[in-house]
Amino acid sequence: MTKTIYPGQTIGIIGGGQLGRMMALAAKEAGFKIAVLDPTMESPCGQVADIQIIASFNDDSALEELAEVSDVITYEFENIDYKGLKRLTEFAYVPQGAELVRITQNRITEKAEIRKAGVLIANYVVATSPVELKATIEEIGFPCIVKTAFGGYDGKGQVKLNSKEELKLATPLFEHGACIAEAFVPFTKEISVIVQRNGNGETYCLPVGENIHKDHILHQTIVPARVSETIITQATKAAEQIADHLQLVGTLAVEMFVLENDTIVINELAPRPHNSGHYSIEGTTISQFHQHVRAICGWPLRKPTLHQPTVMVNVLGEHVVPLSNAISKYPDWSIHLYGKEEAKTKRKMGHVTILTDDINKTLQEIDHSGIWSE
Ligand code: AMP
Q1: At 208, which CATH number?
Q2: What is the tens place of the pLDDT at every residue in 85-142?
Q3: Looking at the structure, do residues 170 and 207 belong to the same domain, yes or no?
Q4: pLDDT of residue 79
Q5: Does residue 185 have a known ligand-binding role?
Q6: Domain ATP-grasp: where (predicted)?
Q7: Structural domain for 228, as ranges
Q8: Is residue 176 part of a domain?
Q9: By alpha-carbon position, which residue is closest to atom 8 of ligand 1?
Q10: DSSP-H helix ranges across 79-155
Q11: Rounded Cα distance, 108 and 94, in Å
Q12: Cα(267) to centroid of ligand 1, in Å?
Protein backbone atom coordinates (compact mmCIF):
# COMPACT_ATOMS: atom_id res chain seq x y z
CA MET A 1 0.00 0.00 0.00
CA THR A 2 1.40 3.39 -1.01
CA LYS A 3 1.22 6.03 1.71
CA THR A 4 1.79 9.75 1.41
CA ILE A 5 4.39 11.16 3.79
CA TYR A 6 4.09 14.86 4.56
CA PRO A 7 6.54 17.62 5.54
CA GLY A 8 7.03 17.59 9.29
CA GLN A 9 7.10 13.79 9.30
CA THR A 10 10.37 11.89 9.69
CA ILE A 11 12.35 10.00 7.07
CA GLY A 12 14.62 7.32 8.54
CA ILE A 13 17.79 6.57 6.57
CA ILE A 14 19.88 3.44 7.06
CA GLY A 15 23.47 4.51 6.39
CA GLY A 16 25.11 7.82 7.18
CA GLY A 17 27.37 8.38 4.16
CA GLN A 18 27.32 11.13 1.56
CA LEU A 19 24.33 9.67 -0.27
CA GLY A 20 22.30 9.82 2.92
CA ARG A 21 23.55 13.34 3.55
CA MET A 22 22.47 14.59 0.12
CA MET A 23 19.12 12.77 0.49
CA ALA A 24 18.64 14.42 3.89
CA LEU A 25 19.53 17.90 2.61
CA ALA A 26 16.99 17.52 -0.22
CA ALA A 27 14.31 16.26 2.20
CA LYS A 28 14.93 19.06 4.68
CA GLU A 29 14.20 21.65 1.99
CA ALA A 30 10.62 20.35 2.01
CA GLY A 31 10.46 20.34 5.79
CA PHE A 32 10.95 16.66 6.53
CA LYS A 33 12.82 15.57 9.62
CA ILE A 34 15.65 13.07 9.32
CA ALA A 35 16.69 10.15 11.51
CA VAL A 36 19.82 8.23 10.57
CA LEU A 37 21.22 4.88 11.63
CA ASP A 38 25.00 4.59 11.31
CA PRO A 39 27.79 3.08 13.42
CA THR A 40 29.62 6.42 13.65
CA MET A 41 28.67 9.62 15.43
CA GLU A 42 28.56 12.75 13.23
CA SER A 43 28.66 10.75 10.00
CA PRO A 44 28.19 12.85 6.81
CA CYS A 45 24.42 12.32 7.14
CA GLY A 46 24.44 12.44 10.95
CA GLN A 47 25.77 16.01 10.76
CA VAL A 48 22.60 17.20 9.01
CA ALA A 49 20.08 14.82 10.65
CA ASP A 50 17.66 15.58 13.49
CA ILE A 51 18.15 12.22 15.16
CA GLN A 52 21.27 10.02 15.10
CA ILE A 53 21.06 6.38 16.14
CA ILE A 54 24.59 5.08 16.58
CA ALA A 55 24.69 1.32 16.06
CA SER A 56 25.59 -1.31 13.50
CA PHE A 57 23.15 -1.99 10.66
CA ASN A 58 22.22 -5.43 11.95
CA ASP A 59 21.47 -4.27 15.50
CA ASP A 60 17.84 -5.32 16.00
CA SER A 61 17.05 -2.88 18.78
CA ALA A 62 18.60 0.02 16.81
CA LEU A 63 16.42 -0.87 13.80
CA GLU A 64 13.40 -0.91 16.12
CA GLU A 65 14.39 2.48 17.48
CA LEU A 66 14.71 3.81 13.92
CA ALA A 67 11.23 2.44 13.11
CA GLU A 68 9.79 4.09 16.21
CA VAL A 69 10.97 7.58 15.28
CA SER A 70 10.42 7.32 11.49
CA ASP A 71 7.29 7.59 9.34
CA VAL A 72 9.07 6.07 6.34
CA ILE A 73 12.40 4.26 6.07
CA THR A 74 14.89 4.24 3.19
CA TYR A 75 18.53 3.22 2.79
CA GLU A 76 21.52 4.88 1.18
CA PHE A 77 23.59 1.84 0.31
CA GLU A 78 22.93 -1.78 -0.51
CA ASN A 79 25.42 -3.54 1.71
CA ILE A 80 23.14 -3.30 4.72
CA ASP A 81 21.86 -6.35 6.52
CA TYR A 82 19.17 -7.88 4.30
CA LYS A 83 17.59 -9.89 7.12
CA GLY A 84 17.36 -6.79 9.32
CA LEU A 85 15.75 -4.81 6.50
CA LYS A 86 13.32 -7.65 5.77
CA ARG A 87 12.31 -7.79 9.42
CA LEU A 88 11.88 -4.02 9.40
CA THR A 89 9.35 -4.27 6.56
CA GLU A 90 7.11 -6.27 8.92
CA PHE A 91 6.59 -3.45 11.40
CA ALA A 92 7.75 -0.24 9.70
CA TYR A 93 6.85 1.54 6.45
CA VAL A 94 9.61 0.62 3.96
CA PRO A 95 8.06 1.37 0.54
CA GLN A 96 11.14 0.09 -1.32
CA GLY A 97 10.82 -3.32 0.34
CA ALA A 98 13.78 -5.59 0.98
CA GLU A 99 13.72 -7.69 -2.17
CA LEU A 100 15.77 -5.29 -4.32
CA VAL A 101 18.52 -5.25 -1.69
CA ARG A 102 18.55 -9.06 -1.62
CA ILE A 103 18.85 -9.19 -5.42
CA THR A 104 21.53 -6.52 -5.84
CA GLN A 105 23.68 -7.65 -2.91
CA ASN A 106 24.67 -10.68 -4.90
CA ARG A 107 25.95 -10.52 -8.48
CA ILE A 108 24.48 -13.97 -9.18
CA THR A 109 20.88 -13.00 -8.37
CA GLU A 110 21.39 -9.54 -9.90
CA LYS A 111 22.51 -10.92 -13.26
CA ALA A 112 19.72 -13.49 -13.31
CA GLU A 113 17.13 -10.72 -12.79
CA ILE A 114 18.65 -8.44 -15.45
CA ARG A 115 18.38 -11.34 -17.90
CA LYS A 116 14.78 -11.97 -16.85
CA ALA A 117 14.04 -8.31 -17.57
CA GLY A 118 15.07 -9.07 -21.17
CA VAL A 119 18.19 -6.91 -21.25
CA LEU A 120 21.66 -7.90 -22.48
CA ILE A 121 24.53 -8.69 -20.10
CA ALA A 122 27.97 -10.16 -20.72
CA ASN A 123 28.12 -13.98 -20.78
CA TYR A 124 28.96 -15.36 -17.38
CA VAL A 125 29.35 -18.51 -15.32
CA VAL A 126 29.00 -19.06 -11.59
CA ALA A 127 31.69 -20.93 -9.62
CA THR A 128 31.86 -21.81 -5.94
CA SER A 129 35.52 -22.90 -5.97
CA PRO A 130 38.71 -22.52 -8.03
CA VAL A 131 38.21 -26.10 -9.26
CA GLU A 132 34.70 -25.31 -10.52
CA LEU A 133 35.97 -22.12 -12.12
CA LYS A 134 38.63 -24.09 -14.00
CA ALA A 135 35.98 -26.49 -15.26
CA THR A 136 33.51 -23.86 -16.47
CA ILE A 137 35.70 -20.98 -17.61
CA GLU A 138 35.98 -22.36 -21.16
CA GLU A 139 32.33 -21.38 -21.69
CA ILE A 140 33.42 -17.74 -21.35
CA GLY A 141 36.95 -17.80 -22.72
CA PHE A 142 39.67 -15.21 -22.17
CA PRO A 143 40.08 -12.41 -21.34
CA CYS A 144 37.48 -12.53 -18.60
CA ILE A 145 36.80 -10.88 -15.25
CA VAL A 146 36.22 -12.89 -12.09
CA LYS A 147 34.21 -11.05 -9.44
CA THR A 148 33.12 -12.02 -5.94
CA ALA A 149 29.35 -12.46 -5.84
CA PHE A 150 29.07 -10.53 -2.56
CA GLY A 151 30.48 -7.26 -1.38
CA GLY A 152 32.64 -5.92 -4.23
CA TYR A 153 32.64 -2.24 -5.15
CA ASP A 154 34.86 0.28 -6.96
CA GLY A 155 36.74 -2.60 -8.59
CA LYS A 156 37.48 -4.33 -5.28
CA GLY A 157 36.95 -8.10 -5.25
CA GLN A 158 37.65 -8.62 -8.93
CA VAL A 159 40.50 -9.75 -11.14
CA LYS A 160 41.03 -9.83 -14.90
CA LEU A 161 42.35 -13.07 -16.33
CA ASN A 162 44.04 -13.04 -19.71
CA SER A 163 44.70 -16.76 -20.04
CA LYS A 164 44.27 -20.15 -18.39
CA GLU A 165 47.73 -19.75 -16.85
CA GLU A 166 46.45 -16.83 -14.78
CA LEU A 167 43.57 -18.79 -13.20
CA LYS A 168 45.36 -18.95 -9.84
CA LEU A 169 45.09 -15.15 -9.57
CA ALA A 170 41.37 -15.67 -8.89
CA THR A 171 41.87 -18.18 -6.05
CA PRO A 172 41.94 -15.59 -3.20
CA LEU A 173 38.54 -14.24 -4.31
CA PHE A 174 36.89 -17.51 -3.25
CA GLU A 175 37.74 -16.75 0.38
CA HIS A 176 34.75 -14.39 0.17
CA GLY A 177 32.42 -17.09 -1.19
CA ALA A 178 31.06 -17.81 -4.66
CA CYS A 179 32.26 -15.86 -7.69
CA ILE A 180 31.11 -15.16 -11.19
CA ALA A 181 33.36 -15.06 -14.22
CA GLU A 182 32.18 -12.85 -17.02
CA ALA A 183 33.44 -12.19 -20.52
CA PHE A 184 35.60 -9.10 -20.84
CA VAL A 185 33.57 -6.47 -22.69
CA PRO A 186 35.67 -4.40 -25.14
CA PHE A 187 33.64 -1.28 -24.43
CA THR A 188 34.17 2.12 -26.05
CA LYS A 189 32.45 4.00 -23.22
CA GLU A 190 30.81 3.46 -19.85
CA ILE A 191 27.45 5.13 -19.24
CA SER A 192 24.80 5.04 -16.55
CA VAL A 193 21.12 5.75 -16.22
CA ILE A 194 19.47 6.65 -12.93
CA VAL A 195 15.86 5.46 -13.08
CA GLN A 196 13.35 6.44 -10.40
CA ARG A 197 9.84 5.15 -9.83
CA ASN A 198 7.14 5.70 -7.25
CA GLY A 199 4.59 3.24 -5.89
CA ASN A 200 2.08 4.21 -8.59
CA GLY A 201 4.51 3.14 -11.31
CA GLU A 202 5.33 6.66 -12.42
CA THR A 203 8.88 6.40 -13.86
CA TYR A 204 11.54 8.87 -14.97
CA CYS A 205 15.16 8.53 -16.01
CA LEU A 206 17.81 11.17 -15.56
CA PRO A 207 19.67 12.14 -18.74
CA VAL A 208 22.28 9.50 -19.60
CA GLY A 209 25.72 10.16 -18.07
CA GLU A 210 29.09 9.16 -19.50
CA ASN A 211 31.40 7.88 -16.81
CA ILE A 212 35.16 8.02 -16.76
CA HIS A 213 36.90 5.93 -14.11
CA LYS A 214 40.41 6.18 -12.73
CA ASP A 215 41.75 3.15 -10.82
CA HIS A 216 38.21 1.69 -10.88
CA ILE A 217 36.82 4.73 -9.00
CA LEU A 218 34.45 7.09 -10.77
CA HIS A 219 36.37 10.21 -11.75
CA GLN A 220 34.07 12.19 -14.04
CA THR A 221 30.52 12.13 -15.29
CA ILE A 222 29.77 14.03 -18.49
CA VAL A 223 26.16 14.78 -19.41
CA PRO A 224 24.80 14.39 -21.99
CA ALA A 225 26.90 11.28 -22.63
CA ARG A 226 28.84 11.66 -25.89
CA VAL A 227 27.10 8.74 -27.59
CA SER A 228 24.59 8.34 -30.44
CA GLU A 229 20.85 8.93 -30.09
CA THR A 230 20.38 5.16 -30.60
CA ILE A 231 22.44 4.49 -27.48
CA ILE A 232 20.52 7.08 -25.45
CA THR A 233 17.24 5.45 -26.48
CA GLN A 234 18.48 1.89 -25.81
CA ALA A 235 19.99 2.86 -22.45
CA THR A 236 16.88 4.61 -21.21
CA LYS A 237 14.62 1.81 -22.41
CA ALA A 238 16.80 -0.84 -20.75
CA ALA A 239 16.77 1.02 -17.41
CA GLU A 240 12.98 1.39 -17.55
CA GLN A 241 12.57 -2.27 -18.45
CA ILE A 242 14.67 -3.35 -15.44
CA ALA A 243 12.82 -0.93 -13.14
CA ASP A 244 9.47 -2.31 -14.29
CA HIS A 245 10.59 -5.91 -13.96
CA LEU A 246 11.79 -5.26 -10.40
CA GLN A 247 8.68 -3.19 -9.55
CA LEU A 248 11.10 -0.52 -8.38
CA VAL A 249 10.12 2.03 -5.77
CA GLY A 250 12.83 4.63 -5.23
CA THR A 251 16.05 4.78 -7.20
CA LEU A 252 18.03 2.35 -9.32
CA ALA A 253 21.35 3.18 -10.98
CA VAL A 254 22.05 1.07 -14.05
CA GLU A 255 25.68 0.97 -15.20
CA MET A 256 26.24 -0.02 -18.81
CA PHE A 257 28.97 -0.59 -21.38
CA VAL A 258 28.69 0.88 -24.89
CA LEU A 259 30.08 -1.33 -27.66
CA GLU A 260 31.60 -0.33 -30.98
CA ASN A 261 28.54 -1.57 -32.90
CA ASP A 262 26.32 0.96 -31.09
CA THR A 263 24.71 -1.49 -28.68
CA ILE A 264 24.78 -1.70 -24.90
CA VAL A 265 25.49 -4.38 -22.32
CA ILE A 266 24.42 -3.93 -18.69
CA ASN A 267 27.27 -4.07 -16.15
CA GLU A 268 25.65 -3.72 -12.76
CA LEU A 269 22.87 -2.20 -10.66
CA ALA A 270 22.82 -0.10 -7.50
CA PRO A 271 19.45 0.26 -5.73
CA ARG A 272 20.03 3.83 -4.53
CA PRO A 273 21.13 7.28 -5.68
CA HIS A 274 24.49 6.97 -7.41
CA ASN A 275 27.71 8.95 -7.69
CA SER A 276 27.11 9.32 -11.45
CA GLY A 277 23.83 11.14 -10.67
CA HIS A 278 25.33 13.84 -8.46
CA TYR A 279 25.45 16.19 -11.45
CA SER A 280 21.65 16.37 -11.24
CA ILE A 281 21.77 18.60 -8.12
CA GLU A 282 22.65 21.57 -10.31
CA GLY A 283 22.29 20.07 -13.80
CA THR A 284 18.62 19.09 -13.98
CA THR A 285 15.21 20.39 -13.01
CA ILE A 286 15.02 17.79 -10.23
CA SER A 287 17.97 16.07 -8.59
CA GLN A 288 18.20 12.33 -7.96
CA PHE A 289 17.93 13.07 -4.23
CA HIS A 290 14.79 15.22 -4.46
CA GLN A 291 13.20 12.66 -6.79
CA HIS A 292 14.12 9.81 -4.43
CA VAL A 293 12.41 11.60 -1.55
CA ARG A 294 9.30 12.19 -3.71
CA ALA A 295 9.25 8.51 -4.74
CA ILE A 296 9.45 7.09 -1.21
CA CYS A 297 7.02 9.67 0.17
CA GLY A 298 4.38 8.77 -2.43
CA TRP A 299 4.54 12.15 -4.14
CA PRO A 300 4.14 12.54 -7.91
CA LEU A 301 7.49 12.54 -9.70
CA ARG A 302 8.78 15.40 -11.80
CA LYS A 303 10.27 15.03 -15.27
CA PRO A 304 14.00 15.73 -15.07
CA THR A 305 15.37 17.87 -17.88
CA LEU A 306 18.92 19.06 -18.31
CA HIS A 307 19.49 22.80 -17.85
CA GLN A 308 22.82 22.75 -19.68
CA PRO A 309 25.60 20.26 -20.46
CA THR A 310 27.20 19.37 -17.14
CA VAL A 311 30.47 17.86 -15.91
CA MET A 312 30.86 16.33 -12.44
CA VAL A 313 34.32 15.55 -11.05
CA ASN A 314 34.89 13.55 -7.89
CA VAL A 315 37.04 14.99 -5.12
CA LEU A 316 39.10 12.30 -3.40
CA GLY A 317 41.22 12.74 -0.29
CA GLU A 318 44.27 13.86 -2.25
CA HIS A 319 42.26 16.55 -4.10
CA VAL A 320 40.82 18.37 -1.10
CA VAL A 321 43.73 20.74 -0.40
CA PRO A 322 44.42 21.65 -4.06
CA LEU A 323 40.68 22.21 -4.59
CA SER A 324 40.41 24.47 -1.54
CA ASN A 325 43.38 26.49 -2.77
CA ALA A 326 41.72 26.94 -6.17
CA ILE A 327 38.23 28.01 -5.04
CA SER A 328 38.86 31.69 -5.75
CA LYS A 329 39.79 30.95 -9.38
CA TYR A 330 36.63 29.09 -10.33
CA PRO A 331 33.47 30.96 -9.33
CA ASP A 332 31.37 28.80 -11.70
CA TRP A 333 32.22 25.54 -9.99
CA SER A 334 29.70 24.18 -7.47
CA ILE A 335 31.71 22.72 -4.62
CA HIS A 336 30.30 19.84 -2.56
CA LEU A 337 32.20 18.43 0.41
CA TYR A 338 30.67 15.71 2.52
CA GLY A 339 31.98 16.66 5.97
CA LYS A 340 34.30 13.64 6.32
CA GLU A 341 37.01 14.33 8.82
CA GLU A 342 39.91 12.36 7.45
CA ALA A 343 40.94 13.10 3.85
CA LYS A 344 42.46 9.69 3.14
CA THR A 345 43.93 9.07 -0.30
CA LYS A 346 41.27 7.69 -2.71
CA ARG A 347 38.45 8.31 -0.21
CA LYS A 348 35.46 10.08 -1.75
CA MET A 349 35.36 13.46 0.02
CA GLY A 350 33.18 15.50 -2.29
CA HIS A 351 32.55 16.51 -5.88
CA VAL A 352 32.51 19.53 -8.15
CA THR A 353 29.78 20.24 -10.69
CA ILE A 354 30.21 22.58 -13.64
CA LEU A 355 27.44 23.64 -16.02
CA THR A 356 28.83 24.59 -19.39
CA ASP A 357 28.12 25.49 -23.02
CA ASP A 358 31.30 23.79 -24.14
CA ILE A 359 32.17 20.40 -22.63
CA ASN A 360 35.62 20.29 -24.25
CA LYS A 361 36.55 23.70 -22.91
CA THR A 362 35.39 22.68 -19.43
CA LEU A 363 37.33 19.41 -19.57
CA GLN A 364 40.41 21.46 -20.47
CA GLU A 365 39.75 23.86 -17.62
CA ILE A 366 39.55 20.91 -15.22
CA ASP A 367 42.82 19.55 -16.63
CA HIS A 368 44.58 22.89 -16.46
CA SER A 369 43.53 23.39 -12.83
CA GLY A 370 46.07 20.69 -11.96
CA ILE A 371 43.86 19.51 -9.08
CA TRP A 372 43.32 16.07 -10.58
CA SER A 373 46.73 15.55 -12.18
CA GLU A 374 48.56 12.43 -11.10
P1 AMP B 1 32.11 -3.30 -11.40
O2 AMP B 1 32.53 -3.34 -9.97
O3 AMP B 1 31.47 -4.54 -11.87
O4 AMP B 1 31.33 -2.07 -11.75
O5 AMP B 1 33.48 -3.14 -12.23
C6 AMP B 1 34.31 -2.01 -12.06
C7 AMP B 1 34.90 -1.59 -13.40
O8 AMP B 1 35.65 -2.68 -13.98
C9 AMP B 1 33.86 -1.22 -14.44
O10 AMP B 1 33.44 0.11 -14.31
C11 AMP B 1 34.65 -1.47 -15.74
O12 AMP B 1 35.51 -0.38 -16.02
C13 AMP B 1 35.48 -2.69 -15.39
N14 AMP B 1 34.76 -3.92 -15.77
C15 AMP B 1 33.92 -4.62 -14.98
N16 AMP B 1 33.40 -5.68 -15.66
C17 AMP B 1 33.92 -5.66 -16.89
C18 AMP B 1 33.78 -6.47 -18.05
N19 AMP B 1 33.01 -7.57 -18.07
N20 AMP B 1 34.48 -6.14 -19.16
C21 AMP B 1 35.29 -5.05 -19.17
N22 AMP B 1 35.47 -4.24 -18.10
C23 AMP B 1 34.81 -4.52 -16.98
Answers
A1: 3.30.470.20
A2: 999 999 999 999 999 999 999 999 999 999 999 999 999 999 999 999 999 999 999 9
A3: no
A4: 86
A5: yes
A6: 111-297
A7: 187-369
A8: yes
A9: 155
A10: 82-91, 99-104, 107-116, 130-136
A11: 25
A12: 7
